[in-house]
Every structure is written in C-alpha cells, then in structure tokens.
Amino acid sequence: MGFVNPIVVSRARFERLWSDIYITTDQIAADIGVHRSSVAGIAQRFGLDQRKSGVKPIKAPLEFRLMWLAGVSSREIAQHFCWSRNHTIVIARRESLPGRRQGEKAKMSLSEFHQAMMAAKMRHTAAIEQSHMISAGMVDVIAHVPVGHRHIRGAP
Question: Rounded to an integer, what distance in angstroms lies between the CA atom of residue 13 and that of residue 105?
C-alpha cells in the first residue's frame, strides 16, 4: 500500500462551498477531490456547523425579480409561477426585493410586462443587427437625430 497525497483545500474556499445551500456534498467532494463521506469530517475539523437539511428554498429566477421590480401584482406573479401569493411574497423578501404596501395597485399587468420585455429584446436585437450591418458596410451611417427634432430640408 502506497502513500496517499493529502488533499489541500483552503478554509475560505471550503467555507464558501459548505455555506452555499444549493451545492450538494457530492458536488463539494468532487470540487475538492475527496469522497463525499470525507466532506463532513473536513467541515468538523474546520469547526463549521452542520449543514441544514430538508427542502431547499427556491432560488428566484431572473424573470421573477424583473416582474417584481416592474410592479406586476404578486397575485399575477404567483399565478405565472404556480405559487401561492404568500409564497411569492416570501421569495421576494428572501431575495431582498423592495416591499410593497398593502393594497398598493400594480404598476403594470403581466401581459404589459411581457410586452415590455419583448420590446426590449427587439430593440436590443435591432441594435446588434444595425451595428453588424454598419460594420459590414451594408448601410450608410445615419446621423443621430434626437427624439422630438425634425429634420428640415436645407436646414443645417
């Protein structure tokens, strides 16, 4: 039986992995190069608390954050994600999103939110396409005219 090289892992790196509830012990073991049964022993040697077990809290998708910040009603957000309204509010608090006053009216509906997101994506795609066309020399560069100003023929 030969000598086995010890695995060296920094305390800071291990603590970061150990404290992230979305990373499993199997993933920690694979990351630092040990068997999963060794992970708890390493944590104990570093003096870390045991990991919480049970249901992991839901990590809110980016779309949820955008809906909440845009002012879509919590009821509509809940329906969209198939959550309860109360769970939606819990997720918003957990994500440190700004609170809402009781009875506060929604700033926009879910359909208005989707329309706004689609419009933003279309503007982004159009800007990319235009820059590619300009760089390929496929169009003349058009001078920027601020909104509200009209170009008058013959005017400087």
Answer: 45
